[in-house]
Here is the input.
Amino acid sequence: LKPAVITLKVALAHLPEEDASKPAVFFLKESASMVIESPEQLDTAVQYGMLSEGPSLVGLEQMLAQVFIPLFGAVNTGDAFADNIRNELMGNVSKFGSQVTHTLQQLTGDITLNIPNILIDSVEKAVEDYDVVVALENAVQEWAAVLTSAIKKEMGKTATGKGPLAEIDFWRDRNAALSSLFEQLNLPNVRRMIEVLETASNVDPSVMSAFKLQFAELTKLYVETKDNVKFLTTLERHFKNITHYKSIAHGSLSTIADTLAPMLNALRMVWIISRHYSDDARMGSLMERIANEIGDKVMEEIDIRVLFRLPPAVAIPKIELAKNVLEQWKATYMQIREKIEMSGRDNRWEFDRKKLFGRTDYMSGICADLRSMVEVMDGFHKFLGPQLKAVTGDAQGIDEVTARVTAMAEPVETLEFDVFDKRFMAQWSGVNAKFQTDKEQIERATRAFIDTSFKKLRSAEGAFDLLQSFKSIKSEGAINRQMMDKFNDILEQFSRELMITRKIFDENMNNPPATRNQPPVAGAIAWSRSLFSRVRKTMSRFQADADQEMKSEAAAAECLRKYTSLAKTVMQFEKAWFRGWAENVDSMAMYHLKQPIIFTDTKCEPNEIKVNFHPDLVKLIRETRYLDRMGFQIPETALNVTLQEEKYHQVREGLYTMLQHYKQVTESLTEVEKTLFSKKLKQLREVLGPGYTPLNWNSLGIPEFVETCNNAINEFQSLVNQVQKNSSIITQVVKAIGTTTVIVEPPGGTDVLDIQEMYEVVEKSRVEIVEELVRKYRTIAPLLGKVEEAVAGTNTGKSPQLKGYYMHWEQAIFMSLNNLVLNGLNSFVQLLLARSPKKVEAMGLSDGNGPLFKLQVILNSPEIVVQPPLKEVTKFLVQLSRNLVECASPFVRWMDGTCIEAPEQRVNGDDDETFIFNFYRDVAENSQVIKVMLTLNHTIQKSVSGVNRYVESWNKHSFIWKQDKDSILAKFIERNPTCEEFEEKLSKYTKMSADIWDSSKDKDVDFVRINARSLVASLRDECIAWVMAIGKEMDKIDTNRVEAIRGSIADKDKGLHITCEHIEDLKSVLNIVAEVRGGGMQMELDYVDVEERYRTRQLFEIPMDQFNVDAAYTIKDAWEVLRVEAEKVDDSLGEVKEKFTEITMAQVEEFAAACKDILERLKAEGPGLPTVELDAGVVSLKEFQEELGVKSKLREELVNAERLFDLPLTSYPELTEVDKELKVLEKIYGLYSAHIDTIKSFSTMLWGELDIKRLFEFTDDFKGRIKSMTGTGLESSPVFGLVEEKITAFKNSLPLIESLKSDAVRKRHWEQLMTITGKEFDMDPKMFTLGALFGMDLHLYADEIGEMCVSAEKELKIEGDVATLAATWKDQRFELAKYNKGTEDRGYILRSTEEVTVLLEDMGLTLQSMMASRFVKPFLDEVRSWEAKLSLIGEVIEVWMLVQRKWMYLESIFIGSGDIRHQLP
Here is the structure.
């Protein structure tokens, strides 16, 4: 597209004539004085729109509606005369706009008559033209129908909307619709057409009569409509003032009120002049619309949901205005009606007043109710205001009553019906009654509250003021009268206040509270006077404004007595306090004036020199000044000190300023500067010495002392400023070193640098920046020389006085170098982050400058290689980070105690190797530097790993270049793939090539851009190589196939032309003919497939030999030639075929007899008999199947022969029946054979390796297969039942085998099993297999084996119990205990044997239950043996314990008693 140039023009106030036909947009500001300061004001302060192109009625209408009328409405001069002119002009413009709109509607009417394109010059000539008359007759007939439809449609319309403007719109719409028809029918040519039809004699009279009837109706309706529009248009301005009063500047309900009189006068004129609006129906309807519109506007204005939330000053006038509008509507109507009646010339207005004023009168009454409610609530709120709270002190109680007043409006605000709807009059009456009830309740509560509150008044004066103010506050009469009766309560409150004041005075007179900044004595006296002034003021008010009540009330005398007593006490208090102060003031003043003028405040840290003007002197001056004002006689000394207050103030200010200057200078010094200026500071303190002694506040030399000190301080400050100026320059240099960033971001954009280029750019900028910093660093020493010259008077760079100063700046330089290195490292980290597009995007930042550098990825088979290598990339990045630390190396350190750079040092006397003392080692050992270095190295390694992962991600395509194409394609060719499979392979590699090429965009890994275009190109070449290799192999196969097909066609062609001397020759030729006839479909599939394969290779642009391509595409033609030749040969063999037909028929008869024979043998001795042995049946089935195969082959040969000789095909039902039976038996015997084979596979398994679960799963599988055969018809075969019985029997033996697998089965049980089954086997675990067990036919002896296994389980339990008993007694122990007789050891005794006895009893019962069991036989001897042993153990324990008890009892008798012991033998 060619670029277009658009020129925009701006015009002010008017549009140039040459541009009037061009598109234009207007912008109109709401007010000429408004200043638009922000774009946000445009929507509200500026009107805009599109002007139509060129002069037209549409443009005029838009200009009036969108420019002039809003302009007049926005202008407000404030001048009443000018505003009246503006309003009149706006009304005329609105009227003119309505006429323009009306004209547009007429011109754009939507009904168009089909007027014949016949120009009538002469009515007489047209009457004689038959064709013209017929055409006009048809047109008039059509016009009559259109008129009928249009009139019917218009008569069916009604005005939409309830307001008066809707009626004007209704007549305008009708006028627009009818005027178009009327104007068309009154065109001169149309009038002549009608005249032709009226003159012609051959016109159907009914057509013209129908047309004239409808045209007369149209004329009548149009005249009526036009007349109504004309008169109603005069009323439109008034109606708009009512409906759209809010859109008028300063518009309100008063606009409606001002409109009512001129509107009704205009209605009166319409009533008098109009022919159609002079009846009660239409004018009454219009009046009803006006009444409804006024009611609706008042209802919109008076919103009861917000009315009570408005300030009363706003709400009451608003309601009053609404009420006035409603009443004025009726009043103005009645005035105009009276004028009409008084004139006596016009028809009277006898409209239905109920319809006109019923709603507005009701709404007026509602407005009166609402105004009363608002006034009531306003009166309550004024009465219950802050003044009443202050007087009564019961804010909570007043707030509760106020809340009730506020709640009065809630039922009105939450009404669910329209209060202005007369249908809800009863509901509104209830709401109003509720409001009046609430009002009365609140009045009672307020009066009760006043009674209670005046019993506990907070302030008598305030209550008195409240009484006075109630005279001017509008409130309910009962409340006001009640307030006027509360003077006695006020006197009682005043009496209480006097008592409280006296109590406060008595409690605080010994320690009176003073106001802020007042001295104690004057403050105490002022306190007593202020305390008394409160009651004095109230008493004065009473005496001035209630003198009569004070004389007549008994409580007033009591108040006067208390008031007089308090006044006397206060007078005595004032005199006592002043007398105590005046006695000591002179001596105190003389003592403090003799003190030194300055002192050192040791409480401050550090110590601070301050002015020693004692606070008591300040207090004395203040007391004197206050007491003097109060009228007291001041002592002479105090008065003299006070008179010198200005002198003392000046001296104090001079000392204070000087000391502050001294403090400011000394505190501005840093610690190192304090050390530097130590001598100067000592000299300065000596200058301040006279202030300690001998100067005091009576001395005359204080100003000279201050001047001397200021000179010394200024001299010292000058020196400090000189030093600090050089210090600030050094600070700037040090700061510049610490804040400089040595990393300069290399250029970004689409052209990314190589890593070598990036390294050189960054390193070059770093070196330049560091060299500049080193140059600045070497300017520090000369600046320190200037400091030395100012302080010490020398410029050597090694002044002992500045040693600490040198160390300070060297330390600062070291910290800045740390910051320099850290900033560089952090900037490098940020650079890596900022040049990582994905991270920048994740942080929501701008796109940045792209990656930092780029790498190349290429294919160097068999590996993918990165250039430069990732190790070299890592080396460059790590070297950059190390170079950042090396930034500290060029900064040579100073010699100890100097600012002179240390010279180079020879290492071990080597002339070549030198050592420079710099900051590198110390900076490099900084823990923060090490931490950032580790972070940087981690970031670098992470990104390098990301690059490596990206490179490795290409290994998913490694099969493209790593796989051996020959071996892979050889395996693929072995599967004899179809064309679709070849195409799939070719598409795979072709698509892969395209996908890889599409992915050749640069890859951004963090801050590294990887260019893989070379790799992608290599992979695409590899994919293309695969496509060519696959195509080559496909071409080889297809070439061989084409050769085979064409060879087959050639062989068939050759076979068709042999001489038929024998039947075999004939069969051969006929077979070829049959193959050609029957192989057409297959051959078509073959050559279509071949062609498709060749097209596939052409599609993938694989080069092919053109000879082979032609050979493939001509197979179809060669086959068609062969087919035609075969038909010719077949036709030529008619006689030979008859000869061999008889031979074939004899062979068929012989074969049918053989088929009957095999069926009879199958039924007589076949494997499907119910008496057959299943194993023999398997062999028999195989023999029959082999015989069936031979006969089936012979049948096919005979069938082919019959087809060749056109004989009817013979069916062999016996052979089919044999085949069907053998297939059924094959399924059944197949299941049996599989079952037997599975059993044989288990038979070799040793008994110890048995997995019984596998056996059950195997059996369940075969039972399922048996079940699945049921219902298929196989169950009807006798053999099916035998196989099912065999499988079921084997399954039934599995629970027995599982029982024999139990640990309870012992050798004796296996011997018993051999006895039961009558079969012997080797029980050696290494020899005993499942085959031996399967051969026993266990299912035949299920009951006996089951009983044996149950016995084995019971015997196992007995065996276990006996073993447990033996183990228990094997570990059983008897416990012995020491037996002492007093302190004598008497040996050991057996402890209690209760547990052993219980154990014996339990085991005895267990042995008894064993003996009672019938399964104890194998263990009978052992059980009896244990019974005897346990019985013996029990007897022994019993005897032992008996002997032990007797011995312990008798031992003390026989051994403890000497007499008895001597008597023993």
Observations:
- Residues 471-475 have pLDDT under 50 and may be disordered.
- The radius of gyration is 66 Å.
- The CA atoms of residues 152 and 298 lie 38 Å apart.
- The first strand starts at residue 24 and ends at 29.
